[in-house]
Amino acid sequence: MTVRTILEEKGFDVQTIAPEATLREATELLAAKRIGAIVVTDPERRVVGILSERDVVRVVGLDGPGRFDDTVASVMTSRVVTCEGNETVHQIMEHMTAGRFRHLPVVQGGKLIGIISIGDVVKQRLAEMERESHAMREYILSA
Question: What is the tally of structural domains in the chain?
Answer without folding.
Answer: 1
